[in-house]
Design brief:
Shape: elongated
Radius of gyration: 15 Å
Distance between the termini: 26 Å
């Protein structure tokens, strides 16, 4: 999958089930962080403390990664 940005989750799910060993989700991580930061700045324009807006970004990343592990890659509880 060259330039595998924006691959639908169903295709990623299929690839994971076919023993593809590495699937990058970095673009999804960056998009989740950016969306959370933008949302915070729109909802709280006076927010200037990085602990506030970066906290929202970290939460968004955790939720997205958990979703990918459990619902897309099928890797939940595999270690």
């Amino acid at each position: 999958m060259p330039d595998a940005v924006g691959i639908p989750e169903e295709q990623l799910r299929k690839a994971a089930s076919m023993a593809v060993c590495k699937i990058n989700i970095d673009s999804d991580i960056r998009m989740a962080m950016t969306a959370a930061l933008r949302r915070t700045f729109v909802e709280k324009p006076s927010a200037f403390d990085p602990r506030e807006y970066l906290g929202a970004g970290r939460t968004a990343i955790k939720e997205m990664v958990k979703h990918k592990i459990v619902n897309v890659l099928g890797s939940n509880n595999t270690l």
